[in-house]
Design brief:
With 298 residues, the protein is an alpha+beta fold. It has a domain of 131 residues. Helices cover 45% and strands 17% of the residues. The chain has a four-stranded mixed beta sheet. Helix 3 packs antiparallel against helix 4 and helix 6 packs antiparallel against helix 7. The termini are far apart.
Length: 298
Amino acid sequence: MLLLVSVFTQAGWGQELACRVTVTAKNLQGPGATSIDKTIFTALEQNISAFINERKWTNYNYKPEEKIDCSIQIEVERAAGNDMYEGKLYAQLSRPVFNSAYYSPVFTYQDNYIIFRYNANQTFEYDENSFIWSITSLSAYYANLFLGLFYDAQSLNGGTDFYNRCMNIINSAPSSESGWSNSSREKGNRYWLLESFTNPSHADVRNFLYAYHRQGLDLLAQNMSEGLNNITAAIEGLQQVYTKNPTILSIQLICLAKSSEFVNVYSGAGMELKQRVVPIFKRIDAANTEKYEKLLQR
């Protein structure tokens, strides 16, 4: 009986990601657009979802309720012919906060360099160290990036192995493939996205992910004062990176994902803390200056 219980329990564990995948082609243009059977994109959506969610990416077993919450949305915009497609990809990742029902947004990104080949009979072959299909390398890249960011938010530099896998995928991609190279013409592509989180010269970005989430948000329910102080220190560390490199992509993406959360976190804080962080927010996220200034009016 104990053996049977163990077997059935383990069967409910496994894969790490609970990724919601959608593929749309509402405004498809291009020379191949009129002849496309759009049900192919439903199949593509199902294949990407199965590839990401049914594959084991780590050596850990996850209970169903522990799976990592993320999403990928692909907007196919152009059918270039010969089963080639172009479009955009939107990626999002969130993380549960301990002792609460709240999920903290960790990452939001729009990838403008999506070009891939796909046909109805295509299998999702994948090798971590070689480039077989652009769509499987693309899916694997984001699966590993989600894991890297999530594990960085769980332990200091915990995501390193997954970032290394992302770099392997980048290095395996042909130089002619859009979105993978270190070309200055594609400054916001997947190479530069990874670089903005992993370059040792701005290590405080990764320190921020850990200190803000694990030492900050997770502590708020237990010790509000200590949690807020740790969050403030993490934000001050982020400012130091910004001072050295004001155009760094990772800080832009952190602010994009978290501007509303920043305001909510400090809405009940004392004026002294607000006065420390509001100038930082206004500096690193100038687009939301008005939102942050309202903190000083509460």
